[in-house]
Amino acid sequence: MSIELLATSIADRAYDRIRTDLVFGRLAPGARLRLDRMSGEYGTSVSTLREILSRLSSEGLVIAEGQRGFRAAPVSPAGFEDVAAMRLLLETYALSLSFAAGDLEWESRVVAAHHKLSFMERRMLAGDQAGTELWKRYDREFHQCLIEACGSQTLLDLYGGVFDQYLRYQMVAVVFRGEIAAEEHRVLLNCALTRNAEEACRLLTQHVNGCVAYTLESGALT
């Protein structure tokens, strides 16, 4: 591997790790991101870190403060409501396209994604909180599968970025609505298999708004 490719590979791995740590709350909202400390933790140079954090700033996960450096983006009730509204705008549009175009292979991926998600939900309902991060990864995978047949990579990329911001709020607040959310996921699966886009969009709106209301009522973002 050439020096240039090696440097790119190291930078890409560092970017992926930092982004994941931001989304899953390991880098706390509002925390100062000290380049000297992060350089050792993520195995990359300070100059590369600046480039990575500037990139993450454009994604809304980091705040650039000029000469003062960088901070993990803060969270707030209003911010969660804004991100949730954007998620609904993109996901309901993509659902209709995906349900119309999805084939048997797409159905199989949706069923498999729901199987993994429902397994983790049953564990959570039984009181096992050790797999919270894996549960949310499977939640993301299920919703992504529902819309992946929409036919627009641009739409999927936009949605992925917005969903990760939404997921970050969920991880900060440790949101799990129990059987209510699990049942909504089961009905969403059935809507996909029967191609009932209208009911899926209605239920998705209920699903997301219910999560927002539950989170705001908990006070976890204040």
Write out key terms for the chains shown:
single chain, 222 residues, mainly alpha, three-stranded antiparallel beta sheet, 9 helices, 3 strands, 4% strand, disordered N terminus
Your description of this structure?
This protein has 222 residues and is mostly helical. Helix 5 runs antiparallel to helix 6. The longest helix is centred in the middle third of the chain and has 25 residues.
How would you summarize this macromolecular structure in one to three sentences?
With 222 residues, this protein is mostly helical. The protein has helices at 3-23, 35-42, 46-58, 77-101, 104-125, 132-147, 153-173, 179-194, 197-218, and strands at 32-33, 62-64, 70-72. Strands 1-3-2 form a 3-stranded antiparallel sheet.
Number of helices: 9
What's the story with the biggest beta sheet?
3 strands, antiparallel
Q: How would you sum up the global shape?
A: globular
Total strands: the figure is 3
Structural class: mainly alpha
Average pLDDT rating:
91
Helix content: over 70%
Topology of helices and strands:
Elements: H1 3-23, E1 32-33, H2 35-42, H3 46-58, E2 62-64, E3 70-72, H4 77-101, H5 104-125, H6 132-147, H7 153-173, H8 179-194, H9 197-218
Antiparallel strand pairs: 1-3, 2-3
Helix pairs in contact: 1-3, 4-7, 4-9, 5-6, 5-8, 6-7, 8-9
